[in-house]
């Protein structure tokens, strides 16, 4: 049995994403992992706890305990008792620890999730103490990932450098529609599908498959009176079309979109104005989804060594 405490060097570094990915990874190999966030951030409902409760239930993991208030963080007696109870139900307990401060003072392995310069990471390792099990540097620009990883070789603990991922920054089809104030012409079952990239369907010189079949999980913005572009863009990688301007889509396009499971959203603004209205859309991205938990688990499987990953969940 093991207790893993995930600590971040600052808020928003991906502690909950890592916790969710560990639960998914363990579940995929037939193991149960319990999640516990001892202290909430002061709100009545902690969004991390709500998400992890739903995820734990779906994976058959132990129920997530209700967190206490941060004002009670000086008394760790009840926390230790809760951890002991969870250990009896699951092989591993993942505890979401604090940001920007020392880990909670109970016996656990510590995972440091970091965003920032490599020299600061080295300083954190030097002062972390004997319980530090691994360091995960999250969301490094992909063109710098190899450089950062090379600069951190030879340390006393394993270090994993994860690149920025469009999958973790994606919004959903429904969030895109709400942001643009669009109307549903055709809503398929993919309202919660991720939108990782937005393409403009204009007067392109390439063939439709050449232009539109390059990126997965894309939305395409195009004029409502251009069924030729709409048809060309409805490939397997397109999750929705945003139809711009006055007029209505043809019945043929509606039929094809339904058959290909592509949602249709209509706005009355021009394509240019619609593209400009995308400003601020990424602020709505939320890492607390099952799709992103699985995506982060895939990132771990790709970039962390199998041995190090196995040691975390066993």
Tell me the number of strands.
Answer: 15
Number of H- or I-type helical stretches: 13
User: Helicity, in percent?
Assistant: 25-40%
The oligomeric state is single chain
Poorly predicted segments: none
- Report the β-strand fraction as a percent range: 15-25%
Structural class: alpha/beta
Distance between the termini: 7 Å
Largest sheet: spatial strand order? 2-5-1-6-7-8
Short description:
The chain contains 13 helices and 15 strands. It is of the alpha/beta class and 314 residues long.
Describe the structure.
With 314 residues, the protein is an alpha/beta fold. Helices cover 38% and strands 23% of the residues. The protein is built from 13 helices and 15 strands. The strands form 4 sheets. Strands 2-5-1-6-7-8 form a 6-stranded parallel sheet. Strands 10-15-14-13-12 form a 5-stranded mixed sheet. Helix 2 (47-59) links the parallel strand 3 (39-40) and strand 4 (68-69). The radius of gyration is 23 Å and the shape is elongated. The model has no long low-confidence stretch (mean pLDDT 89).
């Amino acid at each position: 049995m093991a207790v893993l405490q995930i600590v971040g060097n600052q808020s928003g570094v991906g502690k909950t994403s890592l916790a969710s990915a560990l639960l998914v990874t363990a579940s995929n190999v037939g193991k149960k992992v319990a999640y516990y966030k001892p202290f909430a951030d002061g709100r009545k409902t902690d969004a991390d706890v709500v998400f992890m409760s739903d995820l734990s239930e779906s994976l058959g993991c132990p129920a997530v305990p209700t967190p206490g208030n941060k004002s009670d963080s000086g008394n760790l007696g009840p926390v230790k008792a809760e951890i002991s109870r969870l250990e009896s139900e699951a092989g591993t307990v993942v505890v979401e620890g604090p940001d920007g401060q020392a880990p909670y003072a109970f016996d656990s392995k510590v995972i440091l999730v970091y965003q920032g310069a490599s020299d600061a990471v080295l300083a954190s390792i030097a002062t972390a103490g004997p319980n530090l099990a691994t360091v995960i540097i999250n969301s490094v620009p992909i063109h710098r990932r190899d450089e950062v990883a090379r600069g951190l070789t030879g340390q006393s603990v394993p270090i994993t450098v994860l690149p920025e991922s469009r999958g973790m920054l994606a919004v959903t089809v429904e969030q895109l529609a709400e942001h643009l104030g669009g109307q549903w012409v055709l809503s398929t079952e993919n309202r919660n599908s991720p939108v990782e990239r937005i393409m403009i369907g204009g007067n392109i010189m390439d063939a439709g498959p050449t232009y539109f079949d390059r990126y997965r999980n894309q939305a395409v913005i195009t004029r409502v009176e251009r069924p030729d572009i709409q048809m060309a863009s409805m490939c397997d990688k397109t999750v929705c079309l945003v139809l711009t301007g006055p007029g209505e889509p043809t019945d043929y396009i509606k039929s094809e979109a339904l058959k290909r499971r592509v949602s249709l959203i209509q706005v009355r603004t021009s394509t240019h104005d619609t593209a400009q209205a995308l400003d601020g859309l990424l602020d709505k991205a939320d890492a607390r989804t099952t799709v992103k938990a699985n995506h982060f688990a895939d990132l771990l499987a790709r970039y962390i060594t199998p041995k190090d990953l196995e040691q975390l969940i066993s």
